[in-house]
Amino acid sequence: MKITYANAKVKKYFTDFAKMQRQIPLEWVRTIKKHLNHLEAADNFGIYLSLGIGHPEELTGYEHITYSVHITPNVRLILQPNADNNEEVMICTEIEIEGVCDYHGSKENWYIP
User: Fold this and answer.
1) CA 48/CA 39 separation, integer angstroms
2) Which pLDDT belongs to residue 106?
3) Helix, strand or coil, per DSSP, at residue 32
4) How far apart, in Å, are the Cα atoms of 19 and each of 2, 10, 78, 103, 110?
């Protein structure tokens, strides 16, 4: 699957894990790297979702379809599949990384925006 980034700041951290490690704990960086490897290896987002790695779940309250993947019990990697509806999500071959945040319903604390 192709991975893109929400903006240049997010891309800067996700393409330089040493820089990311200065922003968040090493254990989180390792988990994020594993998730990115799994995402890149999947042919489409539906296959990744069916594996259940990181407990992916759809989030509510966003303008576009948005999913989170667990890094820790409270910290999430936020993803947006390049799809307009839920049927297209399953065959989507491109996702956009939004960042890393502490997601609790309507309250968000962004570590990497």
Assistant:
1) 6
2) 64
3) helix
4) 22, 11, 19, 22, 16
